[in-house]
Amino acid sequence: MSRLSPDKRMLEYALNDACSDIFAFSTTRHGGVSTSTYASLNCTPYTGDSTENVLRNQELLLQALPQRPQKIVIPWQTHGTAFLVIDTDYLQTDPQTRYERLQGIDALITCERGICLCISTADCIPILLYDQRHRAVAAVHAGWRGTVNRIVRHTLERMQTLYGTEGKDVQAVIGPGISLAAFEVGEEVYEAFRTADFPMPYIAEWHNDTHKHHIDLWAANQLQLLDFGLPDTQIETAGICTYTRHEDFFSARRLGIKSGRMLSGIMMKSYE
Known about the structure:
Layout: E1 3-4, E2 10-12, H1 15-18, E3 22-27, H2 51-64, E4 71-73, E5 83-85, H3 88-92, H4 95-101, E6 107-110, E7 115-121, E8 125-131, E9 136-142, H5 144-148, H6 151-163, E10 170-174, E11 184-185, H7 187-195, H8 200-203, E12 204-207, E13 212-215, H9 217-228, E14 235-237, H10 252-255, E15 262-268
Parallel strand pairs: 4-7, 5-6, 10-14
Antiparallel strand pairs: 1-2, 2-3, 3-15, 6-9, 7-15, 8-9, 8-10, 11-13, 12-13
C-alpha cells in the first residue's frame, strides 16, 4: 500500500518493498519553496514557475530520495504517444541535444541504473513500470489522449522489442490522478474512447443530473496492463484523486493550467 514519506514530500509505493533494487514515487505539494498555484514542491520546469524555485525544489527532492540519481530525466510532454529510450547514446550526448530529444515525449524507458525517469502530471495518470526479469523501467504520462491512444500498451510493446519484456515479469504502479467521479467529459471525449473500442460500460458512467459522461482513466489504463499479460496482483493503484485532494496533489482542473505539477518517477538503484 502506498504511503506518504515522513516529510510528506513524496508518496512512496509498496512496489519499493517488493523490489528493493528500485525506487518509485510521486511528489506531493508539500515541503517546497514555490508559491501561489505552484505551492510548494513544483519540480517541473515547463510550467511557468521560476527557474530558481524549480531547481531548489528538485534539489529538495533529490536529497529526499534513498539514493541520489546520476541523472533525473523530465520530458516536455504533449499528450501524444512518443517515447524516448534513455540509453548510453542519450546519456553521452551534449546537453542541448538531450534537451531537444526530450521535446514531445510522453514516456521514458531505460535499462540504465541510477537514472531517475520522471513524468509530470496534474490530473493526468502517471504509470510506472518495472520489468524485474530484464531489469528495465519506464515512466508513462497517460492523459485522456494518451490513454485513448493506448500509450501504456505501446510503451510495453517497445520494452518487449528492446528487452524481451513479458507481462508476467512486469510490476506496475498507477499513481494519483483524476478519478471517475471527478472526470466529467464532453461527448467528443466519450466518442473517442468508444470508437477506440474501449469497453464503455466498464470505464464510463452517465450522470443524469449534469447530462455528462464520466471516464475512468485508472480503469482504462489498467485494462491495457491486463491485456499485455500483467497479473492484477502486480498492478498497484494509488486510488488517490488529485481533483479531490488538490491540497496535497496538483490538479490543473482545480488550480488552472498555470500551476505546479507532480513528478512521478522510477529508478533502478546503482550498485553501491
